[in-house]
Amino acid sequence: MPSVGIFLLCFPAVFLCAGAFLADFNETHVYNPNWPPHARFHNGQTMSMAVVLGAATLWYAIRSAYLPTPTQKRESLFTAAMIGSMYAVTGLSAILYPGSAGCDPDLCGPEGTFVQKHSSNVIELGRYDAEQNATVNPVIPAALRGSKSPEFHFETMRTMAGCVAPIWDAMSQPYEDERESIVR
């Protein structure tokens, strides 16, 4: 009999498979006249990835109930949890790319609204608060506490994504002028 844990892995997986199409097969994405064909290609790729990751999560979660040993069950559930979290992790990282926004300007205004923007601001405010109060917050890495400005800035994001800094630099080169105008 499947457990509550298996259900908690399966429910988001089913939602992911259906949700990607429910959220994107409309005028904001697939039928958006402002989107060029290559953007539609990547949207289709993302929707298909959601289905594949959701199906793999379902497979590993459900099969765990029928495996003979506790070790096999645990490994299958771990795999289901890892695969099931990949779409969310990649979705949360999307705002880190230069020029990205959670919503197109014609739909949400020039700034849009995106959960990553708010979570990044919370991280930065926590860092700034720790710096101002001379306290050390173990959740915020030491590298993030060295900044002297309260504004959320690109160097903080570079530090957070330090392992991809060379890639980040290459991608953000066309946006350097834009960045300078924002920072000032």
From TrEMBL:
GO MF entries: hydrolase activity
Keyword Translocase: no
Domain of life assignment: Eukaryota
Keywords, sorted A to Z: Hydrolase, Membrane, Signal, Transmembrane, Transmembrane helix
UniProt signal peptide: 1-20
Transmembrane region(s): 46-65, 77-97
One of the Pfam families matching this protein, by short name: DUF6640
InterPro entries: DUF6640
Name of the molecule in the record: GTP cyclohydrolase 1
Top-level taxonomy: Eukaryota, Fungi, Dikarya, Ascomycota, Pezizomycotina
